[in-house]
Design goal:
- The model is unreliable at 1-6 and 23-40 (pLDDT under 50).
- The protein starts with 12 loop residues before the first strand and ends in a 7-residue tail after the last helix.
- The strands form four sheets. The protein has a four-stranded mixed β-sheet with strand order 1-2-6-5, with no helix packed on it. It has a two-stranded antiparallel sheet with strand order 3-4.
- The chain is flat, with a radius of gyration of 33 Å.
- It is built from two helices and ten strands; from the N terminus they run E-E-E-E-E-E-E-E-E-E-H-H.
- With 150 residues, it is mainly beta.
- Helix 1 (125-134) packs across helix 2.
- Belongs to the bacterial ribosomal protein bL28 family.
- This is Large ribosomal subunit protein bL28c.
- Keywords: Ribonucleoprotein, Ribosomal protein.
Length: 150
């Protein structure tokens, strides 16, 4: 019994007795016979009984719109970049379990001198001390925050 090498182009793969490919195309197994893909998804060639399967590509799902997601405030200070610290909770028996130490974030209305208005911010108490020392404009400029959008 002679084996014939089959040349499959355009994404075709020869697996044992079956040829899998992605696009609808004409395959030539020998010079005398032509095999084409039908709507069913597979065709059996007439020479050697090779089963040729066609798996159509699945359509890509529509991108999920971020407008439907709820807005969740992250526990990160926008001015200092402080975030939760992973620590150990130690019991009396010295058994250690993981816990998070969150930043002390507060909602605070701060007077913005350049805008002549109050700005409501969610910031850490460390950032509040820094704003009292250096001023709101300097701290916001260093953190890259546009106060006109607040």
């Amino acid at each position: 019994m002679a084996t014939t090498a089959v040349g499959v182009g355009m994404g075709g793969v020869l697996l044992g007795n079956s040829i899998c490919f992605r696009k609808t195309q004409q395959l030539s197994i020998s010079k005398t016979s032509q095999v084409s893909v039908s709507e069913i998804g597979f065709v059996t060639s007439q020479l050697s009984g090779i089963r040729i399967s066609y798996n159509p590509p699945k359509p890509l799902p529509a991108p999920f719109s971020p407008a439907l997601q709820p807005v969740i405030a992250r526990r990160i200070c926008p001015f200092t970049g402080k975030k939760a610290n992973r620590a150990n909770k130690v019991s009396f028996s010295n058994h250690k379990t993981k816990k998070l130490q969150f930043v002390n974030l507060q909602y605070k209305r701060v007077w913005w001198e350049a805008g002549k208005r109050y700005v409501k911010l969610r910031l850490s108490t460390k950032a509040l001390k820094t704003i009292e020392k250096n001023g709101l404009d300097a701290v916001a400029k260093k953190a890259g925050i546009d106060l006109r959008k607040k």
